[in-house]
């Protein structure tokens, strides 16, 4: 605060830092065109004076809303019950706020939702959007392209030739690693519970399983059951697998929630894990993988790194400085008691 108690101005920050008003403006707007030593001087002056940018004036000057939309293609009940999305929302909120921006959470599950979200995005309320959990029928990337809204997709889009910017985990390699681990344990009647096959993550994890098993011709269709990334769907799929192949000796579930459902059904069926049936999941959610009985061997994907990288790419895209159009992040196997 200035000596007379008035709100500090941009000019006062510039005077204290010994730089031009334009330099202070560039620092406040997070422009990369400022030398590190000058940036440090300006930031020190901002802290000393307690300067707070006038966001309304900044928006008028930059024609920016200073808001980012986080759009999830699922229902609210699904989003708030799945720890996967909890991690996404927490990380996105933190990373967006760190840049002095506001996050707006939007969910689109049915046609009415999509109409509402499209109208909101078209109205210019946000400078860009992060898109998660897109299904094959979702046309939000196409909408964004039509209105010129910068967008980064969480996961591989259906049409990578359309020029989409995306950050994804290496789902195929992770599923392959999980299946190879089961094969390495001597398991041969290995089943899989897939994710939704109208999502690229579901398809990629199935393809990784198939590759590790030796190709489609080597996979018994009875050992493939379809799930929906939920615990209930994991339970239903496991019941079907046991009906079709009672002597199966391993299950790779394409999510930790589905793996937890599999463990529950196996216990009811009198199967001991891992002696009778080994189980591997995918996600490595602490609140699931560490607390199942037995603890869950799974594929780790770093949600915080994934979402933080998406926010970085989107921020750069909004400012016209992005260079990484397609980013693929690694996964790794975490061995616990279930396999």
What's the short version?
The chain is of the alpha/beta class and 339 residues long. It contains 14 helices and 12 strands.
Features:
transcription cis-regulatory region binding; 434 Repressor (Amino-terminal Domain); LacI/GalR-like_sensor; 6-stranded mixed beta sheet; Rossmann fold; single chain; Peripla_BP_I; 3 domains; alpha/beta; 46% helix; 6-stranded parallel beta sheet; 339 residues
Give your account of this protein's structure.
This is DNA-binding LacI/PurR family transcriptional regulator. Residues 8-62 form the HTH lacI-type domain. Pfam families: LacI, Peripla_BP_3. InterPro entries: HTH_LacI, LacI/GalR-like_sensor, Lambda_DNA-bd_dom_sf, Peripla_BP_I. The chain folds into 3 domains: 10-62, 434 Repressor (Amino-terminal Domain) (Orthogonal Bundle); 67-169 and 304-329, Response regulator (Rossmann fold, 3-Layer(aba) Sandwich); 171-300, 3-Layer(aba) Sandwich (Rossmann fold). Helix 1 crosses helix 3 (36-49), helix 7 packs parallel to helix 8 (140-147) and helix 11 (231-244) packs across helix 12. With 339 residues, it is an alpha/beta fold. It has 14 helices and 12 strands. The longest helix has 16 residues, at 83-98. The chain has a 6-stranded parallel sheet, with helices on both faces. It has a 6-stranded mixed sheet with strand order 7-6-8-9-10-12, with helices on both faces.
Put simply, the count of helices is 14
User: What's the average pLDDT?
Assistant: 87
Main sheet: strands, sense, barrel: 6 strands, parallel
Enter the CATH topology name of the largest domain. Answer: Rossmann fold
CATH superfamily of the largest domain: Response regulator
Class by helix and strand content?
alpha/beta
Low-confidence stretches: 55-62
Q: Please write the CATH class name of the largest domain.
A: Alpha Beta
Please state the second-level CATH architecture of the largest domain.
3-Layer(aba) Sandwich
User: How many beta strands in the DSSP annotation?
Assistant: 12
Helix content: 40-55%
Strand line-up across the major sheet = 2-1-3-4-5-11
Question: What pattern of helices and strands is seen along the backbone?
Answer: HHHHEHHEHEHEEHEHEHEHEHEHEE
End-to-end Cα distance: 60 Å
The proportion of strand residues reads 15-25%
Count of discrete structural domains: 3
Q: What shape does the CA trace take?
A: elongated
- Computed Rg: 24 Å
Organism: Motilibacter peucedani
InterPro entries: HTH_LacI, LacI/GalR-like_sensor, Lambda_DNA-bd_dom_sf, Peripla_BP_I
Domain HTH lacI-type: 8-62
Keywords: DNA-binding, Transcription, Transcription regulation
């Amino acid at each position: 605060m200035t000596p007379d108690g008035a709100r500090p101005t941009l000019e006062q920050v510039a005077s204290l830092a010994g730089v031009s008003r334009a330099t202070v403006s560039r620092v406040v707007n997070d422009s990369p065109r400022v030398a590190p030593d000058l940036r440090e001087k300006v930031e020190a002056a901002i802290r000393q004076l307690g300067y707070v940018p006038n966001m309304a004036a900044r928006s008028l000057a930059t024609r920016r809303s200073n808001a980012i939309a986080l759009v999830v293609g699922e229902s609210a009940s699904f989003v708030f019950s799945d720890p996967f999305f909890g991690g996404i929302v927490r990380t996105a909120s933190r990373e967006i706020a760190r840049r002095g921006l506001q996050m707006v959470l939007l969910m689109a599950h049915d046609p009415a939702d999509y109409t509402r979200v499209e109208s909101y995005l078209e109205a210019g309320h946000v400078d860009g959007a992060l898109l998660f959990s897109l299904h094959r029928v979702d046309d939000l990337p196409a909408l964004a392209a039509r209105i010129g809204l910068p967008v980064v997709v969480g996961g591989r889009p259906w049409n990578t030739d359309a020029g989409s910017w995306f950050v994804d985990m290496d789902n195929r390699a992770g599923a392959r690693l999980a299946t190879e681990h089961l094969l390495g344990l001597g398991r041969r009647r290995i089943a899989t519970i897939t994710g939704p096959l109208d999502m690229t993550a579901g398809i990629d994890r199935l393809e990784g399983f198939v590759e590790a098993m030796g190709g489609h011709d080597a996979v018994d269709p009875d050992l493939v059951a379809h799930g929906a990334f939920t615990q209930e769907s994991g339970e239903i799929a496991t019941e079907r697998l046991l009906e079709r192949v009672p002597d199966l000796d391993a299950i790779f579930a394409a999510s930790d929630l589905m793996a937890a459902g599999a463990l529950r059904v196996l216990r009811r069926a009198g199967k001991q894990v891992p002696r009778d049936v080994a189980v591997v999941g995918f996600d490595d959610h602490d609140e699931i993988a560490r607390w199942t009985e037995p603890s869950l061997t799974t594929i780790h994907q770093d949600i915080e790194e994934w979402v933080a990288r998406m926010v970085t790419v989107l921020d750069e895209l909004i400012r016209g400085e992005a260079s990484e159009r397609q980013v693929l992040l690694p996964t790794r196997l975490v061995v616990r008691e279930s396999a």
